[in-house]
Amino acid sequence: MTGPIVTVTMPCRNCEGTVSRAMESILAQTLTRIEVVAVDDGSQDATGAILDEFARRDKRVCTVHSAHGGVAMAANTAIGLAQGRYIARMDADDEMLPDRLAAQARLLDEDPALGLVGCRIRFGGSRRRSAGYARYVDWTNTLLTHEAISLNRFVEFPVPNPSIMCRRQCLEDHGPYRDGDFPEDYDLLLRWLDAGVRVAKVDAELMVWNDPPARLSRTHPRYRVEAFYRLKAQHLARWLARHNPHHPEVHILGSGRTTRKRADMLRGHGIRFAAYYDVDPRKIGQVVEGLKVRPRDAVPPPGNAFCLSYVASRGAREDIDAFLKARGHQLGRDYLPVA
Q1: What is the C-alpha to C-alpha distance for residues 293 and 139, in angstroms, rounded to an integer?
Q2: What confidence tens digit (pLDDT) does each residue in 78-98 have?
Q3: Ordered structural domains, the chain, with CATH
Q4: In angstroms, how far apart are the furthest CA atoms of the chain?
Q5: At 308, is the pLDDT very low, low, confident or very high (cuts 50, 70, 90)?
Q6: How far apart are CA 253 and CA 320, in angstroms?
Q7: What is the pLDDT of residue 98?
């Protein structure tokens, strides 16, 4: 049998300080039947020359030089050239641990129902300086099964993009990355889950996700929090139409200004709010958009309402989850965390 099992697609731009380490980690994989399609997205530093040197040294590497078109276009260019039956994503500032590609390909081989897989990841930044990113990594590492990933998809992006491997057929059936004023990686996962693609993770730490200051998710407007919530509202409304027995009515846990601003994005998709609930005595009793804020204990019993938890402060999601479960509410049937 000839040809690569896995194609690693890697968009690159102005990453001369990290791309060699990323490439070396790919070429050191225990799975050797691979190819790497690295797209130099109009870099203005030595990135292109470094990639060309890797291609000269290893015939499994293909370098493409293109005018700057953005990360989605570069990623899709790489996907369009891929020959492997599985397509893995990699970022030029991260590192694969040696068994990543083999373990993920094995999971796809063993479970034909899966269309996309990830893995647990190691945070490569400073937990002191980047505490939020570190907590995000820790959270993603708790979501391993399709059910856990699916029911938590509206909290945050549950499968970090550089850890993804998928079947070529999924890209053909559901489309690659889309370009726009939204996070293209989160958009792809939400579209695929909405289409019924099953997702899971290898229960092993298989890559290092670094956190350089110039990471696009820190600097580009499409990755701002509000862009995530706009995209999230669109897909959450579709999910509610299918799964909320009280559609289009929902009950909102949280009544602060930030919560209301983000929850209000649902109204444009036809969702109607029945009530707000809070634990802050200063907010209870206030009237918000014609609705009186109620104490959390007033949340209707299971089966009588569908609740959306929009409180995003540290520890709040876990507290609300414990509160609702103690009252008999079931995740996905009676409530969803969405912040």
Answers
A1: 30
A2: 999 999 999 999 999 999 999
A3: 6-221 (3.90.550.10), 225-337 (3.40.50.720)
A4: 70
A5: very high
A6: 8
A7: 98
